[in-house]
Amino acid sequence: MGLKMTILVTVVIFGVHFSKIALGQWTTPWSSCSTTCGHGTRSRYYYSSSESEDCNDSCLNGGTIRSNQCDCPAGTTGTCCDDIPECASNPCQNGGACIEMINRYDCNCTRRYTGPNCENDLLWEHYSACQFEFKRCFRVFQHPLDWKGAKDFCARRNGHLAVVDTTEKQYFLETSLKTLEIDEDRSEFWIGASSTEHVLQWITGDVVVSSRWVPGVGNNIHGFGCLALNTHYNFMWNELYCATPAFFICEESITVRSFLGQSL
């Protein structure tokens, strides 16, 4: 086993006794790093020597080190690639909560608003068709959203996209929708079914079974999209790309309070 030796040397200059120096022992601790992040160095010393080592070899938020500095991606700033606070300007309207992301933000809107900044008020834009014997209402919204946006909106209302899994429900919706003045440019209404592994399923998990497909679809569904009612074909079913903007129908349970018009 090796032994570490410490040699004590007495320094005398012009007959003046100064001190004893312990060679091999550091006389200072590590200094602060030369950079906060990116790539820096720190040092320590003793009387006749010094050494250095790398430190703070990292950047925040996906930044990469280039020439001993942080090369920062969009949406970040500063020597360490700190996130730029997009929510600082309060972009979410009507009580929406701003969620900070890298180079963007998301708004978590309250149930009566939608849009990137919760700017669209949907409260007045819906038509209700209720089946009181089944304690449910269908809320028809003529404001185009993609399927996921419609699904999330219905969930914020404590409901879900309409599950039209019986002939009785289908007939009730057909009869109700025929009374509306529908924008002909928007001929589809999202309902609560989408493809999972090329099989159309209701949001309840049940497989979609129906013969009410628009002409030309039938058993030739592609298994890539989401389900909608088509106004041009008497509200028969059609499979669309889920990112397509369309009107939508929420299904909600009702109570005495909602029946009296106090809950929307």
From TrEMBL:
Signal peptide positions are 1-24
Disulphides: 109-118
Tell me the Gene3D superfamilies matching this sequence.
Laminin (2.10.25.10), Mannose-Binding Protein A, subunit A (3.10.100.10)
Q: Which CDD domains match?
A: CLECT, EGF_CA
Q: Name one Pfam family in it.
A: Lectin_C
Q: Which domain of life is it from?
A: Eukaryota
* Alphabetic keyword roster: Disulfide bond, EGF-like domain, Glycoprotein, Repeat, Signal
What range(s) does the EGF-like domain occupy? 83-119
User: C-type lectin domain: from which residue to which, for each copy?
Assistant: 136-251
Which PANTHER family does UniProt cross-reference here? CYTOCHROME C OXIDASE POLYPEPTIDE VIC-2 (PTHR12916), UNINFLATABLE, ISOFORM C (PTHR12916:SF4)
Q: What protein name applies here?
A: Uncharacterized protein
Q: Which organism is it from?
A: Sinanodonta woodiana
Identify the taxonomic lineage of the organism of origin: Eukaryota, Metazoa, Spiralia, Lophotrochozoa, Mollusca
